[in-house]
Write a structure and sequence with these properties.
Blueprint lengths: L4 E6 L4 E8 L2 E9 L1 H5 L6 H23 L8 E7 L3 H18 L3 E5 H7 L2 H4 L6 E6 L4 E8 L3 E7 L5 H11 L7 H9 L15 H7 L6 H16 L6 H27 L3 E5 L6 H13 L3 E3 L3 H4 L3 H13 L17
Parallel strand pairs: 1-4, 4-5, 6-9, 9-10
Antiparallel strand pairs: 1-2, 2-3, 6-7, 7-8
Helix pairs in contact: 2-3, 4-13, 6-9, 6-10, 7-10, 9-10, 10-11
The structure holds 5'-O-[(R)-(carboxyoxy)(hydroxy)phosphoryl]adenosine and zinc ion.
Length: about 350
Amino acid sequence: MSEPLVLGIETSCDETGVGLVRGHTLLADAVASSVDEHARFGGVVPEVASRAHLEAMVPTIERACETAGVRLHDVDAIAVTSGPGLAGALMVGVAAAKALAIGLGKPIYGVNHLAAHVAVDQLEHGPLPEPCLAMLVSGGHSSLLRVTDVTIGVDPLGATIDDAAGEAFDKVARLLGLPFPGGPHIDRAAREGDSVYVDFPRGLTSRRDLERHRFDFSFSGLKTAVARWVEARERSGEPVPVNDVAASFQEAVCDVLTRKAIDAAQTQGIEDILIGGGVAANSRLRAMAEERAAAKGIRVRVPRPGLCTDNGAMVAALGAEMVSRGRTPSALDHPADSSLP
Ligand code: KG4
Ligand code: ZN
């Protein structure tokens, strides 16, 4: 028998994602984003996101099937993000997945969004190294996780105590007059900038902070430092060197992220670091992590940028892994759980 065909649905935030995966092979990854509708608000508006998911769901499923050249009836299992995320947005995906599971008479697997960000890597680099240290950095979270078996869950070692890394990128971009979401714009601006132009603070890295928050992050102080610096520059009447500030800010974020990820891996005796989430698309983070980890004999895996941001393929990838490891499907009445750990 050929490997099972799994359809994955992701609606935890502002992307309606539908992916089709057979084993570790990606067949389709259709994403409809409502990001433009949120841009004028400077952040994701939950009600707008839910409505957009509702409108995009059926066309996105159809597009995925068309790309993969499969019919819905060929699907062997449905996987869906059950949390964490925006409650209303999750409910649209979970309802669609249940409808498909009932209509097709196929099992449904409710999966954890964070574990899916980890599992997606096997579509690109093959079987996951387990245990591995996963660093998930996105607009909603910044966590260091120990992953022993991705189908069972992820164990948090540390997380942000205030803003998520992506949120910091978005807020600083706004300060610099760059569009939302700001990460890709800062990434691009930073390539033309001087990363040692301003020595911005590295949150939770003092000896005292490390005692209590060794694997935690804090980015709100950094954001405030950038705001103060920009304000002072504007008051002086001199132009703000956007590229240099972007590069210096990005350097501070990447420095802390890579330092703590490597420290966590070493402490856990883990030789593989996997980076996921939207911020993993950052070119400086990828380069710095690879360089610093290699110096310590640690391997780094980062999926290609298109797989790092939210998508349905990651959910399908984790669903396929659950099928192949013989995990029990979820009940048909399993709830969307916005506060899933
Ligand atoms: O994982 P994701 O698509 O959605 C969730 O938040 O769950 O991540 C989106 C975040 C946004 O904050 C965006 O600014 C950031 O990822 N991002 C980046 C880059 N591309 C996306 N941040 C830094 N550099 C990038 N190249
Ligand atoms: Zn995400």
